[in-house]
Amino acid sequence: MAKLISKDKLDDLLSRLKEQEKYEVFAPVEVDGVTLYQHINKVPSLEFTNSNKPPKDLFFPQTETMFQLERDDKVFVGTKDIETSSDPILVLGMRPCDSRAMLILDKLFYWDYVDPYYKDRRDRTTIISFTCTLPNMPKESCFCTSMGGAPDSNEGADMLWTDMGDVYYVESLTDKGNKLLELGGNLFTDSDQAHDSKVAEIKVNAKKAISRKLDTNGVKEALEKSFESDYWDEFAARCLGCGICTLLCPTCHCFDIYDVISNGEGRRERTWDSCQYSHYTAHASGHNPRPEKKHRQRNRIYHKFLYMENNLDIIGCVGCGRCISGCPVNIDIIEVAEGIKEAEGIKEAEGIKEAKND
Amino acid sequence: MTDMKALTDQIRSTAREWLEKGEVKYIIGYEKDPNSPIARPVFIHEPKDVDRLIIDLTCVNNLTRFLVDEMKNKPKRGEEPDLRPIGIVVKPCDSKTIVELVKEKIVPRDRVKIIGVVSPSTIDPKKLNMALKNIPQNKRKDVKLKENGNDFILEYDGESSSIPQDDLLADKCKVCVVHTPVISDITIGEGEKDWKKDNFEDIKDIEDMSPDERWEFWKRQLDRCVRCYACREACPLCYCEECVFDREKPYRWNERTVGLKENAFYHLVRAMHLAGRCVDCGECERVCPMDIPIRKINRYLIKRARERFNVFPGINVEEDPMFGSYDVDDPGEDIW
Amino acid sequence: MADWEPKIIGFLCNWCSYTGADLAGTSRLQYPSNIRIIKVMCSGRVNPQFVLKAFQEGADGVLVSGCHPGDCHYIEGNYYARRKLTLLKDLLEFMGVDPERFQVSWVSASEGHKFAEVVTKFTEQIKTLGPQTKLDGGDGE
User: Fold this and answer.
1) Residue B228: how many CA atoms within 13 Å on its side-chain side?
2) Which residues of A touch B40 (CB under 8 A)?
3) Where are the domains of chain B?
């Protein structure tokens, strides 16, 4: 049974959650023109397209201390675990593509070795996904429908809310979602026929508005054959090696672990790393198996469309489009996936158009 | 009003001539992106592909960045290196970068053949995004942009709307004083020869702040930095084989932690490394995914270099680099 | 904090300033001991990164001292230092970090008194400014 909640009741909901269960709430907030997930005490304006930095930052922070070193006068004698909290976390406002990305990250961080830092935050988090609705969303670079998602996908979310003007249409999908309904109590009202059919219309319109499409059939086969192809030289010629594609990607997860000794204190930290950086696979011997940018860009495509599928049975791209809009030289992952198929003669590529004369 | 079509045609015919005669190895230029309203870099190796080249208001990249890559390329063992020059299409700001690269002997003058374009300006893609907000997003890549006096005309789907230049023009173009290429093998287009005076109006807002306000401002901006190093990678003058921020041996200068302390160190050091060299091509600010106004820092150092040492980066190839030279009478009034 | 003592890092050039500091010592001149001296061969060797790193690690003030212009042991090293370090001071000011925390001085080998004066004056200045908490990840007081 779907519910409704009026927008002016959201602050009340927040207060109840904080007072009764000490929820830590994060939502997308605009700061100087950039949308970032931040801790909030009051509900901000939730009209956003998508955050610049993906929400994986909430569970897998860009820089995270793993443990601290304990000092005894001049010597480090042991390690001290970081204190963690057990308060529940609420993410108010993730796009469905990002929620699906959480499922991919879950498969990864809970795979052969359960990452305790990720797990600690993830297990106590409730995710409220917001359906992508016109006119803000979808963006011109979105292609979630080609990657198994949709503007109204409920995968990875505990609740799916749809903006209907002055109310949100609330669908609870899991126990965690139901818990929020309980805590919200009378702030949530039952939905009715009118709202039910309007929401269906909103969702259909959003889906229709997705303009970029990628046919993933055949991409894996093309990649299996094309490791040495000349195609990689062409499209990566203009790559700058800046790493923006990997930093903004909601499923990228590489990190580097190192020790920091500073000001007499020591800690072990991990920070996001990027396969696009030149020293990513640099060996201690000095040899670098991925010396050129084309090797590294090729690795990114392979990882998303082949390796993750082989290892985790899921394509590592959710179609959020951040790498496309963030790339300074207009490298477009849809164009590359279609292009490699065409290069291997697998299928007539639909995405590539010859540049036309004006 | 600039006739972009005429400029495009001239670029194409020059490129065709150079490639047919084998005078250049390949040409770096701009082409239309099928999926975006902004043009993208292209490498033309064959004369038959020259019709992909264009020049218009959306050609925002600084292509000289790729010249540096070329210079770093080592030929395969046993192969003779191909020392033919690289052809490149440059806007006036990019041509200043080439002056710096030649000055610092990174790109020998005879290894580059320059098609200098007198192009009026470029737009800021982020501002274009804001302006296109009301256009259905599947139509945005078909948007055509034209100049009309002090406005821009956006044409799409048979309709058109007018936008004041200020709302779309890149910030660097608003303060640009050099409108014709300062170095080129062929100059395309007619342009003003007088240079405007630069009053550094764009950094006045920071200069007018009190020291505490300034720190608050920069603290807020630098906190947001994700250290993607896109500013460094996009900058044509950041060409070190191994950047100081990537070094672990013999000493790790900056921890990999992403936080205000390390971010401030990175930006301050990078600003010092570019002092006297930065020509304000604007790439650093354009590529930043977090919209940090990095150009302001470099602009301030350009201003101070000019005021203190009469240094104008990117204008004169014969000049010595700023930190590689000195004047016995350099000012040092605040030295005890 | 009544008992806070500033930490000041000094980069002194070997031929002039370090010798000048030595002369101050042998002449038994008093100057505050907050300064920790790092000897470099020439003030021109001082990389702006050294200064910024010192601030990052918690220095409250940084002093760079070299030969007088025209008297550099290596002829022109201090001319380059003058260019680099004056611009560095401008940059610090633009970012909102007190430019008074960073000082350049010319002290020759025979100026033991001047060295003691410079250090005393600089230490007083830093004491007035208080601890540096901007570039070391602190709160920015």
Assistant:
1) 30
2) 238, 329-330
3) 4-74+84-188, 201-324
